Amino acid sequence: MYSLKSYDFELPEELIAQEPVEPRDHARLMVLRDGIEHRFFYNLPEYLEKGDVLVLNDTRVIKARLHGHKSTGGKVEILILEKLGENFYRCLVKGKKIRTGTELIFDNIKGKVMHKEEGICDIEFSGNIMELARKRGEIPLPPYIKKKISDAEEKYQTVFARKEGAVAAPTAGLHFTPELLKKIENIGVEVLYITLHVSYGTFKPVKSEDIREHKMEAEYYIVSEKVAERINNRSGRLFAVGTTVMRTLESSSRDGMIYPSQGYTDIFIYPGYEFQAGIDALITNFHIPKSTLIMLVTAFGGYERIMNAYRIAVEMKYRFFSFGDAMLIFKM
User: Fold this and answer.
1) Average model confidence (pLDDT) across the chain
2) Which fold has domain 65-136?
């Protein structure tokens, strides 16, 4: 299944969730085992057993969106993506006539565009732009969320977010509450944390008709020695919470073993991929048509099985994307 159109589906706009449900764990949960079950996220513990391992991504979304203007006066908006050096960052830039050499101004900090390619600019700043972003930046909600979220910094953040560095939330983790995590631990499930700083690359549109020609942007990840050891020595099943966790574990594994590692991964998982990490189940949200995320999910869960589940989700009016409902997919 290498054709981009194979991952397209009809999605009514009203099914794109504009805000999370409250409480978080009251989102709907579609469970894919032998058949399909329709539950709620708070039912998740019923599918877990003593000895299982649940792996979460503890990245924290930063206030990466800043508004400023060009030295010539036009408005500009940047989304800080990655640090390249001292006061030197890769940014997604929105504004008219932005080119190499353009000077941007954010309060008392100036930025000079050193390189530009497809809206992504490498910018050298005159001061600490991250400090300014922490003070007056905005949480970068996805563009399909049109509703103004007053407390976005809390709602678009997992309850276990610790390590700053992401420009988008690991959305499968948004459904967990402290109470639900405690209930899961009380069963005898070990809850572990990896880090993958979600970048713009995860959501970069796939433009090539042959998906194998798509190039993923690299994202920084960490798998500690303790986490690798605990996963390898588990007595039960391995549950990955989110595509970011799956990509991280696959980037750190070979032959069914997880190895401690950190660095950048540009792993692209699509049907035909040979999984190495020994993941038994994936918890994930409902993803954007023709995205690398739905390609990963179909690789793990089976193309026909997942696309059929998506058709049913549309019929039953599940909520889609970041603030939407969830799936629990057991490997067949």
Assistant:
1) 95
2) Thrombin, subunit H (2.40.10)
